[in-house]
Amino acid sequence: MSIIPEQTMTGLAPLKVALVYPHSPVYHQDRITQNRISGIEEIETFPNLSLLTLAGFLAPEDRGFFIDEDYLTLNNFPFDYLQEDYDLVIITAMNHQAKRAYEIARHFKVRGIKTVLGGYHATALPEEAGQFAESVVIGEGEDLMPDILHDVRRGKLNKIYRSTGKADLKNFPPPRLDLVPDLKWYSKIGLFATRGCGHCCSFCCLWQVYGSRYRTKSVEQVVKEVQLAQSLHPEAYISFADENMLVDRAFARELAKALIPLKINWECYCDSGIADNPELLELLAVSGCEELLIGFESVNPESLLEATRWKQEQGPGYKQAIENIQKHGIGVLACFVLGFDNDGPQTVQSLRDFILETHPYELDISALTPMPGTPLYSRLKAQGRILSENWDDYSWFRVNFQPKNFQPRELMDSIRWLFLEYNSPENKQKRREYLLTLSPRLASLKAGTL
Ligand code: B12
Ligand code: SF4
Asked: Which fold, 16-162?
């Protein structure tokens, strides 16, 4: 096996590194069914930002290979990456990708090639992940990558690397978007500007990975990353992957101003608190912000409290919040979760009324999914209500626990019914008329749902 090649001018031995995003066939089957239910016509695709971010730490002489198994599988890409030799294989995985991630790790381990596995699943279940990969990473990777690469060079990886969760984003290198064979394969390009969300919702795995302290990159850094994306894909639609991007209003204002000359279209996740800031909303629209993706979670106050007190306090303002945002010509992708202990048939009815009254530009409703590592998971596990620990069932399209007031099947049927109501020709027409009266700009958004 041709592992460590000759020394380079910098004195470092160049590394050959595979960066692998695993394909989950079960998820993709579920996705097709879900698209039918929710009326979605196209699957959104992004080059995985976790791996591209980690690749930012490779030395210039190292060779990184970005392997998106979704893309290989969906397009029969003729490159058998599994048979190549590498100095290191880096694998990321969400819960539903864990089975495939483990197969990949085992495959390379048998071949004597070093593997490091990180991401949401490994962070929650490092011991399980450690049975398959040589090395496991807990938490965010930026403060660990220099050590990992150093350890590979000296030929010995630690079993566990644990992030401090305190790294300064201002020191992060840009993601290696150049490693993607062709950015035009994908419908959107992810970047991130901030990290941290202080709401600490009971079902959310993100604060387990990054901590809850809010940190930002510099505006100049973000601008450079956007320009990099544009240089590789002039029509790039930027989707900021931050958990809750606009929390620091001064930073958000400066960033929006700096994005204006770049003439991009973009979207991000944020919380409903943004709706109280008309000047910032105006600026966001001018900067090319097309959609805000907001986790409202529920219209039932008791269910909101199950998520977090902050959201319960925001609940009474949700209708106004959606109107305030959309009248600036920014679509709201309203995200809800069904299956809290306080949810029942009345919640389903109230959610239907809410959706048909507020007309969110796009809608997402998921079955509540207890993810390992979250307080919700620990509680349901202690109550004996986790129905499956087959990670294929953690796609957010399946009910993997015993809800209190529904049978799992009823919960999925309720979600299906809500989507049917939202997408009925009559309600679509009403939504279109309402939104175009509210703001004609909504007709020109790239999501093009009107
Ligand atoms: C962008 C995004 C998508 C995009 C792109 C996915 C892709 N190709 O990467 C799209 C829209 C396609 C998508 C789809 C889905 N997503 Co998604 N998505 C996100 C989002 C918003 C950002 C992810 C991201 O890029 N983060 C930025 C990178 C830099 O951070 P990171 O991934 O955490 O990586 C860091 C660390 O985790 C660590 N790390 C990660 N891996 C490794 C590996 C090593 C070796 C090391 C050292 C470190 C390391 O270091 C990285 C740098 O710090 C997150 C929520 C969020 N705000 O994070 C949800 C999220 C990842 N998605 C989630 C889910 C459930 C899904 C879907 C299953 C939803 C669905 N039902 O359709 C699908 C699955 C798609 C698939 N192909 O399998 C969940 C995962 C939960 C879990 N515990 O597994 C999240 C967390 C959202 C949530 N609701 O909680 N998603
Ligand atoms: S507001 Fe969103 S990102 Fe923040 S903790 Fe709650 S679910 Fe997670």
From this structure: Rossmann fold (3.40.50)
Q: Greatest CA span in the chain, whole angstroms?
A: 69
Q: How far is the CA of 209 from the centre of ligand 1 (A)?
A: 11
Closest Cα to atom 5 of ligand 2: 200
Atom of ligand 1 nearest to the CA of 96: 84
Using CA positions, which residue lies closest to atom 1 of ligand 2?
Answer: 199
User: Can you give the residue ranges of every domain in the chain?
Assistant: 16-162, 188-368+403-444
- Regarding the domain delimited by 188-368+403-444, which CATH topology (the fold level of the hierarchy) does it fall under? pyruvate-formate lyase- activating enzyme (3.80.30)
What's the burial of 232, exposed, middle or buried (CB within 10 Å: 0-12/13-18/19+)?
middle
Q: Residue-wise pLDDT tens for the chain (450 aa)?
A: 333 344 444 566 799 999 999 999 899 888 888 888 777 777 889 999 999 999 999 999 999 999 999 987 655 555 689 999 999 999 999 999 999 999 999 999 999 999 999 999 999 999 999 999 999 999 999 999 999 999 999 999 999 999 999 999 999 999 999 999 889 889 999 999 999 999 999 999 999 899 899 999 999 999 999 999 999 999 999 999 999 999 999 999 999 999 999 999 999 999 999 999 999 999 999 999 999 999 999 999 999 999 999 999 999 999 999 999 999 999 999 999 999 999 999 999 999 999 999 999 999 999 999 999 999 999 999 999 999 999 999 999 999 999 999 999 999 999 999 999 999 999 999 999 999 999 999 999 988 888
Closest CA to 370 of 396, 351, 405: 396
pTM: predicted TM-score of the whole model, two decimal places: 0.96
Q: Check if the beta carbon of residue 299 is closer than 8 Å to that of residue 354.
A: yes
Nearest ligand, CA of residue 311?
Answer: 2
Tell me the two tokens of residue 343. 């949810």
Residue 317, helix vs strand vs coil: helix
